[in-house]
Amino acid sequence: MNRFVLAAATAAALGACSASTEQAGLDIPAIEAGELSQTTMVDITRELSSDAFEGRMPGSPGEEKTVALLTERFQAAGLEPGNNGSWVQKVPLVEITGRDYAPLSIKGQGVNLSFQYQQDWVGVTYREEAATALADSELVFVGYGIVAPEKGWNDYAGIDMKGKTAVILVNDPDFATEGLEGPFNGKAMTYYGRWSYKYEEAARQGAAGAIIVHDTAPASYGWNVVESSWSGPQAYAQRGENAPPLTQMNAWVQKGVAEQIAKAAGKDLATLSAEAAKKGFKPMPLGLTVSTSFQSDIRTFESQNVIGILRGKTRPEEYVIHTAHWDHLGRCTPAPDGDDICNGAVDNATGTAALVALAEAHAKAGAPDRSLVFLAVTAEESGLLGAHYYAENPVFPLSQTVGGINMDAFLVGGTSKDVTAVGLGKSQLDEFLENALTADGRTVTPDPNPEAGYYYRSDHFAFAKRGVPFLYVDGGEDLAEGGREAGAALAAEYRDKRYHGPKDEFDENWDWSGVMADLQLFYRIGRMLAESASWPNWNEGDEFRAIRDQSCAAGAGCGS
C-alpha cells in the first residue's frame, strides 16, 4: 500500500533534513547518471494498466499477460532468468470469495441492531471453509488488541476469548501524540498498530471473530479503501502444517456503527477509546452478541514472482535487490459510470515499469561488481504475500543480500525539489540516499505522516523483518511548480478520487519529468550499492539490527 492514501501531505514548511547514521568506513562511490528510458516507463505503464490486463489480479488472465510481458522485457533488457534458469518463482495461494452475506446482527437485552454488508461493515474468513457462521458470539472491547510483553502491555489480560469476538481500535494507543515519544513511538505507528497484527493476535487469543473499528485519521485511509479492498476475491498464502490459528471471521465496521454498538452496551466509544489508551487497560465485555453468516467460493492456485538478474563481474554472490509489486485488485466496486476494472496505473504499474527501465539502464552501463536483482512480486495488495514468500524462500541468500530499494507507486505530477523517505534514520542506507540526492541537487523530507506506519505496509517490510536493510522512498512533497501546497493537492486528488478504485487509470497527458528524476535517484543508489565494498547495516537500537547481525553470523555472509 503506498503512502499517498494518507490525508493530503501537510503544506506547512518541512525543513529538509536527514537523520544521523553510523558512517564509519562506508564506501559510497560516485556514480554517473544512467541512460533511463521514459518511453519504457510510458509504454509499460500504459500496457499494464490497460483494460486488457483486467486489473492484474493474481491467478487471473491478467497475471498471465503481466508475467509474459515482464519476462519478455527483462530478457530484452539484457537480464538473465533469476531463479535457477527460470524467470519465475511459483507462489502457492488460495483465493476466497465471500458471497450471500447476512447482515451483521447485534443483540442483547432490549437490543436488536442490524448492519448491512459493504455499507456498514465488511468481513472475510481466512479459513478454507465453504460456509462461515458466527452465531451469538459475545462481544468484548479489547482496546487496541495489543499484547506487548516488552512494554508491559496486554489488552487481553484476564479474559478467555474462546468463542468471543474482539472489538478492536485501529492504530496504536499513542497515535494522537504530536511527537515521536511514547510507549508505541508516539505518532509513529508500530507493527502493533497494523490490522494484520490485530487479526493475528485475536486468533492467538482464541477469538471466534475480530472486528476493527474504522476511523479515517488513525487508519490513514477512508472507508472506500476498506470497502473496495476487503470485498470481492481475497488471496492468501496457502497454509501448511502447524500453521497459526485463525478466527472464523475478520471484519471492519464504520466508526458510526461502532458508536451505535457502544451506545447499545450503555457505553460511549470515545470514553472507551480514552481508557484503551492507558497502560493497564482491561478488556470489557459489552453484554452483547454478534451474528452473521456468508458463503465462500474457494480456489487454490499458484501465482508468480518474476525475477531477473544482472550478474556482478567481481562479486556475483553479493546481491542488491530492486522490488515492485506487479499485482492490483482486478475487478472491484464499479464507479458511477459502470467501470469496474481497478487498473492500478499508479499503483503499481509505474513501479513495475521502473524495474524494467532500471534493468535497461544498468545493463547499458555494464555489469557492476555485485549482482543486481529485479524482483516483481505478486499479491502485495493481499498482504505482501509474494514478497513474504520470497523472503521465506529466498533464491539468493538473505545473508548475501546487501540491501534493496522498493518502488511502490510513482505519483505522476512534475518534478519536486525533494523526495520523501519513509523510515528515515533506520539504517546506513540513508547515507547512500543522501549522496545520491546531492549528486542530483535535491533534498530529503522525512515521512510527514509516521503515524500511518508506511514502513510496515509495502514489500520491503518482508525483507526488513528478516534483517535485510531496505530503502522506501516516495516522490517529494515540495513540487517545483506550486511548492508544498501543490504537492498536498496532488496527493489528496489521488487519494480521494483514484486510489484503489477504477479511476487509477493511465493518462496520456501525464508529466513524467518527476518520475524520471526519482528513477535517476534509484539508479544511482542501486549502482552505488552494487559498486560499494560496504555492507550497510541497521542503525544501533533499530528493531531489525539484531536480526541482521544474527543472520550474517549464521549464514557466514554480509562480507565475512
Low-confidence stretches: 3-23
Largest pleated sheet: 17 strands, mixed
Helix content: 25-40%
The CATH topology of the largest domain is Aminopeptidase
Which structural class best describes the helix and strand composition?
A: alpha/beta
The average pLDDT is 91
- Number-wise, the strands total 21
Q: How is the topology of this model organized?
A:
Blueprint: H1 38-48, H2 61-77, E1 80-81, E2 88-99, E3 104-108, E4 111-115, E5 121-124, E6 131-141, E7 147-148, E8 153-154, E9 165-169, H3 195-204, E10 209-213, H4 216-219, H5 223-229, E11 234-237, E12 249-253, H6 255-264, H7 269-276, E13 284-310, E14 315-325, E15 330-331, E16 341-342, H8 345-365, E17 370-377, H9 385-392, E18 401-406, E19 418-422, H10 429-440, E20 443-446, H11 460-464, E21 470-475, H12 483-497, H13 513-531, H14 545-555
Parallel strand pairs: 6-9, 9-10, 10-12, 14-17, 14-18, 18-21, 19-20
Antiparallel strand pairs: 1-13, 2-11, 2-13, 3-4, 3-13, 5-12, 6-13, 7-8, 13-17, 15-16, 19-21
Helix pairs in contact: 1-8, 2-8, 8-13, 10-13
